[in-house]
Design goal:
The protein is of the alpha/beta class and about 375 residues long. It contains 13 helices and seven strands.
């Protein structure tokens, strides 16, 4: 064999090695923390344990059911033209309710725009979440009243906000903790990398909670990383853990442990909740264009609500009366949300210029006057046409 033919024969083998190296970390998924199997079987974990009463377990189930019902109503309202956009959490209820119920009242939350379940846990009225998506306000709640920051649309920026806030908590000597939510796509943002660096160096009491729903709109996780996301924490000098994001018990136990670690002054933790976005990224997205129906079907079998219900029924911790009453409560919530959205008043257009500067600004004043004249021109035109 000639030198040329030998080199030619080697080329496909080198390409094959590169391909397998890129795919191997994704196909060989690491073990994750799990306390409740998809079949509803209770299992133990050597590092994480949890002991909940029947009432607490029913409470977690209620949280997930009502959050899903609210989410479904919001999606329907968008389809009916009542909302401009909606980001569904379908399939991620366990990650949000489990982590949300691990928080203390004095802990502070920095969400993205999909943490409807966490907002529920923090006592934010569901109807308040919809004002921004209807375009009538910029959030609709006081962040400090529930220690739940306004929704953040800019991808990854809330991790910096959370880190700075946590550094302030540490300087104040408080024993509370901070949690920042973000997705697998946001993990590639520079803001997230910077927040990891600062939180590690300053030993900030913050938990980074990554909901890895495996799709950053149409980009799969393999386009974000060559290693499991939780392992990124090692390079910054703090621990990371992967948890079954469809297991509400495991999410509760792991998040509670990470928060307690932060409160003890031991610094940040990265929690990767391995879950799945069963719906579209937002209502402007069509997931059938980039992922297979078989993939969704496989994850529907791991539904977080169904597995907890199976456990409750198997252990005799909830009866038919409980489930019937919850169905009725769910429908009542849906009706309340629907009526509240349709009754939301349109804002004063001139309110657009408020709250930009505490002491006013000459340029804003000029823009306000121009916009007022523009608005008045429609009134003048209508009167001339009479």
């Amino acid at each position: 064999m000639t030198v040329e033919s030998t080199a030619a024969a080697r080329k496909p083998r080198r390409a094959s090695k590169r391909t397998s190296a890129a795919k191997k970390p994704q196909s060989a998924e690491p073990q994750l923390v799990q306390l409740l199997t998809p079949e509803g079987e209770r299992v133990e974990h050597p590092d994480y344990s949890i002991d909940l009463s029947a009432e607490e377990l029913r409470g977690l189930y209620r949280d997930m059911v009502l959050t899903r019902r609210f989410d479904a109503e919001a999606t329907a309202l968008q389809r009916q033209g009542e909302l401009g956009l909606w980001a569904s959490l379908l399939g991620q209820e366990a990650a949000q309710i489990g982590s949300g119920r691990a928080l203390r009242d004095d802990d502070y939350v920095f969400p993205t725009y999909r943490e409807h379940g966490v907002a529920w846990c923090r006592g934010v009225d569901p109807t308040n979440l919809l004002g921004m998506f209807r375009g009538v306000n910029h959030g609709g709640w006081d962040p400090n009243s529930n220690n739940f920051h306004l929704y953040t649309i800019v991808i990854g920026s809330q991790t910096l906000h959370a880190t700075g806030y946590a550094m302030g908590v540490a300087k104040d000597g408080a024993d509370s903790a901070v949690i920042a939510y973000f997705g697998d796509g946001a993990s590639s943002q520079g803001d997230v990398a910077e927040s990891f660096t600062f939180s590690a160096v300053y030993n900030a009491p913050v938990v980074f909670f990554c909901q890895n729903n495996q799709w950053a709109i149409s980009e799969p996780t393999e386009r974000q990383t060559r290693v499991p996301l939780y392992q990124r924490a090692q390079g910054y000098g703090f621990p990371g853990v992967r948890v079954d994001g469809n297991d509400v018990l495991a999410c509760l136990a792991v998040t509670r442990s990470a928060l307690e670690r932060a409160r003890r002054g031991e610094g940040p933790t990265l929690v990767e909740a391995f879950t799945y976005r069963m719906g579209a990224h937002t209502t402007s997205d069509d997931p059938t264009k980039y992922r297979a129906d078989e993939e969704r079907a496989a994850w529907e079998a791991k539904d977080p609500i169904l597995r907890l219900r199976a456990y409750l029924e198997k252990e005799g911790l909830a009866d038919d009366a409980f489930f019937t009453a919850l169905d009725e409560e769910s429908e009542t919530l849906g009706k309340r949300v629907r009526e509240a959205v349709r009754a939301m008043p349109d804002p004063d257009p001139m309110a657009l210029f408020e709250h930009g500067y505490a002491d006013g600004n000459s340029l804003v004043d000029e823009e306000r006057a121009q916009f007022a004249a523009y608005q008045a021109s429609f009134v003048d035109s209508a009167e001339e046409g009479k």
